[in-house]
Amino acid sequence: MTPDMIYWTFLLLSCGYSAILGGVDGRRIAVIYVVGSLLTIPAQRTMVVWLHLQTAVALVDTAALICLFAVAVLSRRWWPIWIAGFQLNTVATHAAAIFAPSFAPRIYFAMESFWALPALIFLVVGVTKDRRAGMTSTKQRAPDGLHRA
């Protein structure tokens, strides 16, 4: 299996799990990741060589960061914050390419791609922990510990 096939399989499995069992936050984050990944395909084709900043990919990643940050701010759960933090690392990698033009292209590509995997792992872990704690899309724990529909 190629790395792309592994990524897409992992993406679809984790986002599918999140969309089905993760409540509103899980569905929102799943949509953000799938749409962002799909938009990255044409964005990567705008510049074939990773010698300097990939502007289109950086814009897609920044838009995803803004969306993930919004989900994290509106959420009552802990795991969207971690996922937004991993996306912040991705955007910071683009910033490194701006401020350090000698940043090795292989390192830039690898680091830009790397942070999606821990985020997808936290997506599954977060949804699983919420489900074990009894937090579903219809029944969430309020900050005072009471259940609200």
Q: What are the main properties of this structure?
A:
149 residues, mainly alpha, two-stranded antiparallel ribbon, 2 strands, globular
Please outline the helices and strands.
Layout: H1 3-21, H2 23-45, H3 55-74, H4 79-99, H5 105-114, H6 116-132, E1 140-141, E2 147-148
Helix pairs in contact: 1-2, 1-6, 2-3, 3-4, 4-5, 4-6
Account of the 3D structure:
By secondary structure, the chain is an all-alpha fold. It has one domain. 74% of the residues lie in helices and 3% in strands. It is built from 6 helices and 2 strands; from the N terminus they run ααααααββ. It has helices at 3-21, 23-45, 55-74, 79-99, 105-114, 116-132; strands at 140-141, 147-148. The protein has a two-stranded antiparallel sheet. α1 (3-21) runs antiparallel to α2 (23-45), α2 (23-45) runs antiparallel to α3 (55-74) and α4 (79-99) packs antiparallel against α6. The longest helix is centred in the first third of the chain and has 23 residues, at 23-45. It is globular. The N and C termini lie far apart (44 Å).
